Amino acid sequence: IPDGVYVLIIGESMTRDHMNAYGYSRDNTPFQTEAAATDRHYTFFDNAYSCYTQTVQVLTYALTEKNQYNNMNLADAFSIIDMARAAGFTTTWISNQSQYGIWDTPIGAIGSVCDNQYWINKNIGSVVATSDYDGALVPYLQKADPNNRRQLIVIHLMGSHVNYWDRYPKDYNRFNSPNGENTSTEEAMINSYDNSVAYNDDVIRSIMDTAVNDLHADGVLY
């Protein structure tokens, strides 16, 4: 790996079918839509798919040498964090997902070997609750030393995971679905999801602002 600062942003429950940047009718990704249209430094992938339907399988396959085509035990598989550390990179894990729980522990194990770790979600078990919105992760990214040109920083968002109306502040209620109200109807669920996508877009904007202008990152992958 060439020397540099690399930032890997892991999303959650995001579909391009509900992103204006990919042609969705609602204006819910202003930052990404503008970046795709006007900034040659951005590359948007039109044919990218998750390798599974659930977070644990997706990320254990994506972040380690284990995959659906081999019989390797996860405990024996090297991860991207292991490889970065072996190459002399400082590694940082910043997460709004739980570190421990039936949905999270295998991912927590991957992140727990990082040199720097910030787990802001203290919930444990089978819940998907959060105490903070994803924007709370950005100050931890700002802690990184821009003079260290051998860094891999992973940011794991809660993104648009259910419950959708729990993923954004009330001032992002842009599509007529008050937080927690009328959530039994399909229209209200879609509205809440689209609100979460709009908030996520702003979080990505904040992350990119820090990565590019403060850390002078050599590459950012979302």
Structural notes for this entry:
- The chain is an alpha/beta fold and 222 residues long.
- Helix content is 29%, strand content 12%.
- It is built from six helices and five strands, in the order βαααβαβαβαβ.
- A five-stranded parallel beta sheet has the order 3-2-4-1-5, with helices on one face.
- α4 links the parallel β2 and β3.
- α2 packs parallel to α4.
- It is globular.
- The two termini are 18 Å apart.
- The relative contact order is 0.20.
- The model has no long low-confidence stretch (mean pLDDT 92).
How is the secondary structure organized here?
Blueprint: E1 4-10, H1 30-38, H2 55-63, H3 80-86, E2 90-95, H4 105-111, E3 116-119, H5 138-141, E4 150-156, H6 186-214, E5 219-221
Parallel strand pairs: 1-4, 1-5, 2-3, 2-4
How many alpha or pi helices? 6
Which residue ranges are poorly predicted, with pLDDT under 50 across at least 5 consecutive positions? none
Percent of residues in helices: 25-40%
Question: What is the count of β-strands?
Answer: 5
Strand content: 5-15%
Report strand order across the widest sheet.
3-2-4-1-5
Assign the structural class, choosing from mainly alpha, mainly beta, alpha/beta, alpha+beta, or little secondary structure.
alpha/beta
SSE order, one letter for each helix or strand: EHHHEHEHEHE
Name the average pLDDT: 92
- Distance N terminus to C terminus? 18 Å
Radius of gyration: 18 Å
The shape, in one word, is globular
Instruction: Report on the biggest sheet.
Output: 5 strands, parallel
